[in-house]
């Protein structure tokens, strides 16, 4: 596969195959990020499609000034999520845990997995907005520290510190939840 910069340049000249390759390379990470942020699988699929539609419409404005293409996509995704959450009314949605549980045929494993996800979702609600953003970009989006820093507009050191504090807070919240279950 050609390097990303040449694919982006080709996509900027409306080469559909080049954009399709960029789509394939980044879709899963963008989808996981969006699904983690909004907690609804169907909405996340639609929103991820919209991210790529927006990217296609504005790819001519993308410039290689120290910003990776994937960081640019995550910024578009972040903006989509923010808009979605602002507009969202009090409609019922499937909790994040239900959207991420696998279709495993073992009911016990499915139940344990769902419980683990519910505990994680509950624990993440105790984090600050910035901590949740770092966790979702790093672990759901699988971005390296440098890209998270660019997406969030922070230094790499600040992102590392934020990630460390988020993990400590998550660990504490999960241990508290585990201790409450044993009582």
List the helices and strands and how they pair.
Blueprint: H1 4-12, H2 16-38, H3 41-58, H4 69-87, H5 96-100, H6 107-124, H7 129-140, H8 145-152, H9 156-182
Helix pairs in contact: 1-2, 2-3, 2-4, 2-7, 3-4, 4-8, 6-9, 7-9, 8-9
Concise account of the structure shown:
This protein is mainly alpha-helical and 183 residues long.
Describe the structure.
The chain is globular. It has 183 residues and is an all-alpha fold. The longest helix has 27 residues. It has 9 helices and no strands. Helix 2 packs across helix 7, helix 3 crosses helix 4 and helix 8 crosses helix 9. Helix content is 76%, strand content 0%. About 8% of the residues have low confidence. It folds into 2 domains: 95 residues, Orthogonal Bundle (Rna Polymerase Sigma Factor, Chain: A), CATH 1.10.1740; 83 residues, Arc Repressor Mutant, subunit A (Orthogonal Bundle), CATH 1.10.10. The N and C termini lie far apart (55 Å).
Strand residues, percent: under 5%
Estimate the helix proportion, in percent.
Answer: over 70%
SS summary, helix count = 9
Radius of gyration: 18 Å
CATH class (first level) name of the largest domain: Mainly Alpha
The largest sheet, given as strand count, sense and whether it forms a barrel, is: none
């Amino acid at each position: 596969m050609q390097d990303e910069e040449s694919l982006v340049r080709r996509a900027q000249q409306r080469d559909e195959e080049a954009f399709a390759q960029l789509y394939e390379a980044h879709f899963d990470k963008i989808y996981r990020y969006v699904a983690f942020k909004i907690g609804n699988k169907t909405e996340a699929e639609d929103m991820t499609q919209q991210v790529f539609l927006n990217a296609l419409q504005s790819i001519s404005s993308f410039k290689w000034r120290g910003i990776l293409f994937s960081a640019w996509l995550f910024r578009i995704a972040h903006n989509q999520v923010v808009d979605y959450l602002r507009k969202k009314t009090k409609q019922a949605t499937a909790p994040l845990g239900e959207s991420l549980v696998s279709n495993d045929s073992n009911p016990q494993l499915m139940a344990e997995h769902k419980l683990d996800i519910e505990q994680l979702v509950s624990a993440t609600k105790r984090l600050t907005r910035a901590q949740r953003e770092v966790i979702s970009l790093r672990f759901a989006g699988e971005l390296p520290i440098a890209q998270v820093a660019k997406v969030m507009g922070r230094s790499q050191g600040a992102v590392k510190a934020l990630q460390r504090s988020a993990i400590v807070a998550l660990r504490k919240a999960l241990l508290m939840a585990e201790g409450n279950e044993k009582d």
